[in-house]
Amino acid sequence: MQSLFFFLIALALLIAVHEFGHFWVARRCGVKVLKFSIGFGKPIWQKTGKDGTEYIVAAIPLGGYVKMLDECEGEVPLEQLGQAFNRQTLGKRTAIVAAGPIANLLFAIVAYWLVLVSGVPGIKPIVEQVAEDSPAAFSQILPGDQIKQINGEMTPTWATVDQVLRTIADDGGIAEITLVRHESKVIKKIKIAQQSMLVASPNNIIKDLGLTAKLYDLKPVLGKVIENQAAAQAGLKTGDIILSTNGQMIESWQQWVEVIKANAEKELSVALNRKNQKITLNLTPKRAEQSHGFIGAAVDSSATAVPEPLISELRYGPISGVIKAIQKTWQMSSLTVKSFIGMLKGEVSTKNLGGPISIAQSAGASADRGSVAFLSFLALISISLGILNLLPIPILDGGHLMLYFFEWVNGKPVSEAVQLQGQKIGLILLLALMFFAFFNDLSRQFGL
Amino acid sequence: MLKQRLITAAILIPLVVLSILKLETSQLQWFIGLVSVLAAWEWLSIIGINDVIKRLIWVVGLILVVALIAYLPMMFILILALLSWLAASVVILKYGHTGLPARLAKLFKKTRFGIVCTFLLLTFFWLSITILHRTPLGPEQLLYVLVSVWLADTGGYFVGKKWGKTPLAKSVSPNKTWQGVWGALGLSAVWAIVAYTLGINGDLSLLLWLCLTLLTVMVSIVGDLFESLFKRSFNVKDSGNLLPGHGGILDRIDSLIAAVPIFVAGLMLTGSL
């Protein structure tokens, strides 16, 4: 329910941004705007401005519109003809139509800028181990090295290392890694195997290179407990803090993992703290494939604060942040286009096409993780909205732009009969797409 | 005139061959970009954009469009190129003798339609060369297409001169004959077999390789005629005099602008790109 709430807020906001783009440019061009509505259906709030525009908030927040004075949609009094949309020059009409998607892209830039300037916390990329015979070992990366830059991009956190490597892997190529080793700079080159960014479940690219992150002792707090595994069967629950096993004190999650691994198929007496009550349970780890013990539970890493020396932050200055935010928006836009074409070609599973349900879930999940994550999420959805609207499908903004393009080439507007046919086809295409997205959602929810 | 032509050729041919074989794709794309920009410059002047500033703006626009379109998947670009040249072939074959019907003729006289064609065709040309050149056999195959088109030109010219009598597309280019086309196809077929024995075909069978070459050569003739069609629509004789003795750069590469995208699209569709 909470996800749905955040989703509706996100959607209403982004639609408002989109429609405001149309609205603002229309007014600048001297077009009379009759209605500016967020959502459709029954109005729940409305107000008529001094300019004669009706501002409406409607009940169903899945869309919105700007209604302009237009001879194609109704009678226009003679003295207002100059303010009618259809009487504007081709350039002005193009600007008004393009303004919606552009507003969404600008919004994304601003949102990313806010995220980058306020800083994204993370863990400093210090290498703990380098696997033998791995690409990292060949490139002579050593334990203790701190990854400073990759191909000229600053990488203050492991998350940014992952992100930059992924962009390089999209084409496949050489990464030039700048390391800090004993306070001096070392540059190493490493070959990155090609891996499309569009794969649904990508490999762990950092692990594939043979790198292990420097970690810190995590508090032994249970995060996720998998059903029908040893931990769940023994009665362990999310939030439990492990105190001791067989009388031996457990100080860290890492230590607890070692104890479990060493005691496959042996009964352990586990003391734990659940909501400030001490409980003792009997737990028998199962034998995993690698022949060590396994109980099917994961750590709650958020229970432990990151130790000071490993705290890092991805943060840009106000000016460099602008450039970075534009880059990021561009990158996500082209990824959106690519994944869309990939879907049409059948390369990317259409399961990636998230309909309202999965978007609502991500909205809730990102709101849980704080305002920075929610802003990034808003930016991403804003980009999708902008790009989707630019698709050359009649009835979408992109479809109108396509008609204007033909008008520009031909010197006269596309005939109404052709426009009408185009709208029919566009509507069918759009409905098919929506059906697809919803169907994927439902099958994800219910495992159809 | 002939001497000048030979000297220009003697300088240009080694330059082109060396750039294709020696340069990295990332470097070659700028060279091809330069050629495309010069061709666009001439094409824009053909379609009546005489104002230098305006032409400059459109050329910059072309570069931006290419940079944007390069982000699209290559399959998308190549299929679009294939369809565009298919449409051009239909127009040429259907109306080559009689001249364009009124509506099409009006369209072909529109400067803006000319701009769209310029943009599309040069974008396909520029990008398909970079797509091909990147592949392991790319430089050799690119050179192969160039030689095929030049040989087809030569074969067409001599056979047409000696035996030519049935005009191909009277209203567009009265000098081109069907006999010339057979000459062009014959000579390039021989060349295709030679290249096959040299292993330039990659993993294509001889039959497919031959078909692809002949298709490429046929479309290259369409490319030549398509440029003439534009010149005729805008009443222009020469496209420029950038290359001494050869006329404009566009006259030199008009066949290639059509041939390379078709060849690359063919390679992609046969799965050997």
Layout of SSEs?
The complex is a heterodimer of chains A (448) and B (273).
Chain A: H1 2-28, E1 33-48, E2 54-68, H2 90-118, E3 120-123, E4 127-130, H3 135-138, E5 146-150, E6 153-154, H4 158-171, E7 173-181, E8 184-192, H5 205-208, E9 211-213, E10 222-225, H6 230-234, E11 241-245, E12 248-249, H7 253-262, E13 268-274, E14 277-283, E15 286-287, E16 293-294, E17 297-299, E18 311-314, H8 318-345, H9 356-368, H10 371-390, H11 397-410, H12 416-446
Antiparallel strand pairs in A: 1-2, 3-18, 4-9, 5-6, 5-7, 7-8, 10-17, 11-12, 11-13, 13-14, 15-16
Chain B: H1 2-22, H2 25-46, H3 52-69, H4 74-95, H5 102-108, H6 111-134, H7 138-163, E1 167-169, E2 173-177, H8 178-198, H9 206-233, H10 249-269
Antiparallel strand pairs in B: 1-2
Helix pairs in contact in B: 2-3, 2-6, 3-6, 4-6, 4-9, 4-10, 6-7, 6-10, 7-8, 7-9, 7-10, 8-9, 9-10
- Total DSSP E strands of chain B: 2
Largest sheet of chain B: 2 strands, antiparallel
In what range is the share of β-strand residues of chain B?
under 5%
Low-confidence stretches of chain B: none
In total, the number of strands of chain A is 18
Looking across the biggest beta sheet of chain A, what order are the strands in? 6-5-7-8
Shape of chain B: globular
Derived structural class of chain B? mainly alpha
* CATH hierarchy class name of the domain at 122-215 and 309-314 in chain A: Mainly Beta
Radius of gyration of chain A: 28 Å
What is the helix fraction of residues of chain B, given as a range? over 70%
What is the ordering of alpha helices and beta strands of chain B?
Answer: HHHHHHHEEHHH
* Category from helices, strands and their pairing of chain A: alpha+beta
Give the count of helical stretches of chain B: 10
Question: How many structural domains can be distinguished in the coordinates of chain B?
Answer: 1
Regions with little confidence, pLDDT below 50 for 5+ residues of chain A:
none
Most extensive interface, residues per chain?
A-B, 10 and 10 residues
